[in-house]
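Q: My labmate handed me this sequence with no annotations at all. I'd like to see what the chain might look like in three dimensions before we decide whether it's worth expressing. Could you predict it?
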Amino acid sequence: MTKKKYTHFNQFERDRLEAMLSGGHKQKEIARVLQRDIGTISREIKRNRRKKQKNKILRNGPYESAMAERKARLRRGYAKYQGKKIEDNPNLKKYVIRCLKKHWSPDDIAGRMKKRKLRERISKDAIYAWIYSSWGQRWGKYLYAQRYRPKKQKKNKTKKTLIPNRTGIENRPMIVNARKIAGHYEGDTIVSGRKHHSKTSLAVVYERKLKYFDFRKIRSLKPKQFNQAVIAMRKELKIESLTLDNGIENQHHEKLGVKTYFCDPYSAWQKGGVENMIKMVRRFIPKGSDIKNYSSQYLKRVARILNNKPRKSLGYKTPCEMMAKHNLFIKNKKPRAQKIALGGGI
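A: Here is what I predict for the chain of 346 residues:
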């Protein structure tokens, strides 16, 4: 049986722990739900619960997740400071190293210092913190149990730039940020479900002000495939700029022939318009499905339905109508409006 690697409690687990304790659940039941050892649950409650003072006596109070999270963070920060206590004291450092070379454990060292009533003392936790830090790593090999081994230092490698010559979203003009002018788009991709092992995806563009979108099927997320799709859409749409994420498909953005801006890493909310549009598309192309199985005719009908959907933010006009009004179709060729039939499907 493979031994599981320990991970610190996170805020979600602490919220669940607080809720279950308030509901009267036993620690054994909580451990089963959170998939944690019962000892871990017990220590978490004991160490991070609120303390109340009554009649000058400190008593245990209720377990509160927010308080527990703060206490845990403070403790981790303090542990880092503990290692510095040894590093900043040459005499103490020499004594600890001398004892470690004799294969004394941190508990032996701390206990001996207390027994001899030395003026300069340190706890076993502080010694461990120092050993685990970059200052004391080299002395970890002397630990008797050899539970700690220094990490191998990685060789310095030339840092690769995933997106060359990228312009961050912070440099996007304010008038574009405020959606005061039309013609500025966000771009993204919709991928097939992993279980299908299919690389077929959709390249999506979305007009930020008028909410018009278009997409093209691509065989893979290779930059060349994505660029071909965007260039094909540019032949039908007037695209002044594109806001993209940092995906590998955007690596050749300079070949698109349009100004590009890039979101911060892991900040999909910075292009929330296209993210919301993808959620609407998922009604017709469910998450996990294989995009390869959808025909071009079907995809065109999906686009037609959503682009002819009245929007409150557009005064209940459709994206198609607003695009035509602003003359944002190439050669002013407006796509046909979707005919609505009662009871009709897609």
